[in-house]
Amino acid sequence: MNTGNFFIGKMKEYPRIVFFGTPDFALASLQSLVDAGYQVVGVVTAPDRLSGRGLKVHNSPVKEFALLHNLPLFQPVNLKDPGFYEQLKSIQPDIQVVVAFRMMPKEIWSMPVSGTFNLHASLLPLYRGAAPINWALINGEKETGVTTFFLDEQIDNGNIIFRETLPVGDEETAGELHDRLMAVGARLIVKTVQAIESGNVPTLSQEAMLDQEEIRLKRAPKIHKEDCRIDWNNNALTVFNFIRGMSPHPGAFAELVATDGVPFYIKVYKAQREIIPHTLTPGTINSDGRTYLKVAVKDGFIILSEVQIAGRKVMDSLSFLKGYGFHFV
């Protein structure tokens, strides 16, 4: 495997860092930089959005942190806006750090002398794309991790700086894995900045990895609503991995029909699998109406543990059975 060192020259004692990010996953990394004593001279986050009941403005986690710590805050609608470019240039960043942010134009990411690097929640070059945590679980991976890499013209394709591997729990959900990767990634952010400070950054070409290791490239495209429907015709392991890979967001769903014939949707957040021969058609409910709720799949059953009906709270299957009569469509 080809490795190399990217020499950028030893930086001054306190590099000027601009941070790009919006959700909780990014907040942990920003927090780690501040806790490590780094000079964050700018925070760039998404514009405010209306959400919740009454469509009120809710600050993103990164914005809340920036306001609390009096960090210079920018919320450009268009990253190609010349006004934003000039503002950013005037800050004179030495390093730009990107975590869970949108695609950036070259004139922005190429601005710092020491480069712009991104934290990605997979072991690149595997699972390039918007939903690496979800797809790793959906595909039943036994390990995943986080990667820092320098940005270039192609999405998630730049030279790798560091990778850190984590085992995946057999029943771990996307939400649980997200939180573990978030913590590991925050530490890796600091390690990466320290390497850049030293002036000797180890880098590795993703294309070289693909050529030499013959990795089968797996991708992680954005997940849309229509991608979240459970297919009961699959085997138990496939359905089980699909449910945990979608939990809690965006949530795997199925369509139910109440005893009055009115259809409604249900999301499944937690489940178990049972491998056992049966003669039921996949998608058929198997339940005593009181203590268990199973759905037939090709080679057994999926036991529903935690579900939600639109407009209702998340509930365990026993609470669900008390209140609803149904069969699957």
How would you summarize the topology of this molecule?
Blueprint: E1 4-7, E2 16-20, H1 24-35, E3 39-44, E4 49-51, E5 56-58, H2 61-68, E6 73-74, H3 82-91, E7 95-99, H4 106-109, E8 116-120, H5 132-138, E9 143-150, E10 160-167, H6 174-198, E11 200-203, H7 206-213, H8 236-245, E12 252-258, E13 263-275, E14 285-287, E15 293-297, E16 300-309, E17 315-316, H9 317-323, E18 326-328
Parallel strand pairs: 2-3, 2-7, 3-6, 7-8
Antiparallel strand pairs: 1-11, 4-5, 8-9, 9-10, 12-13, 12-18, 13-16, 14-15, 15-16, 16-17
Walk me through this protein's architecture.
This protein is α+β, with helices and mostly antiparallel strands. It has helices spanning 24-35, 61-68, 82-91, 106-109, 132-138, 174-198, 206-213, 236-245, 317-323; strands at 4-7, 16-20, 39-44, 49-51, 56-58, 73-74, 95-99, 116-120, 143-150, 160-167, 200-203, 252-258, 263-275, 285-287, 293-297, 300-309, 315-316, 326-328. It has 2 domains: 4-213, Rossmann fold (3-Layer(aba) Sandwich), CATH 3.40.50.170; 225-328, Methionyl-tRNA Fmet Formyltransferase, Chain A, domain 2, CATH 3.10.25. The chain contains 9 helices and 18 strands. The strands form 4 sheets. A 7-stranded mixed sheet has the order 6-3-2-7-8-9-10, sandwiched between helices. Strands 12, 13, 14, 15, 16, 17 and 18 form a 7-stranded antiparallel sheet that branches. A two-stranded antiparallel ribbon has the order 1-11. α1 (24-35) packs parallel to α6 and α5 (132-138) packs antiparallel against α8. The longest helix is centred in the middle third of the chain and has 25 residues, at 174-198. Residues 1-11 have low confidence and may be disordered.
